[in-house]
Known about the structure:
0% of the residues lie in helices and 54% in strands. With 157 residues, it is mostly beta strands.
Amino acid sequence: MTLHLGASNIGHNRVLVTVSHRSPTAAVPVSTQWFIYSLTGEVEYYAVQIEPIDGPSNPSGVFDTQLVRVGDSVVAFGTLALDDAREQAVHHWFMHVYCIATGEWREIPYVAGESPTHRGFPHLFAVDDTVVLTGGGIEDIDCDTWEWSICTERWTK
Length: 157
């Protein structure tokens, strides 16, 4: 079994977590679950509460999802799924934005020529209201850098 975790602080002692696990013998090759972990209690008596939440649909089985907080949102971004017939990772687009205030998700579609090329495990981080994506690759390493604005919901190179 292969396991991939993504996590992002959402404030007030809470963390949004995604867990993707792959079992080659399961009917659904990649299972993705979403949770909010909350730290509650007093300093010496902390407890962790785990609340399952509805996450975005992942029909392609993308398993390398990263979470990055940008303002009052969290961007979920992944690009690799498994092709069981070829027994290797293949490129897919998975980008969704979680609104911390409402708990709602919205999908950000891939636009050829206006979105980063598909790549595996890129570096992803936030600067102000922007997600920065750089690097990544399976056989070839893409060294270009892209920025995605939470305000305009557009990528720029």
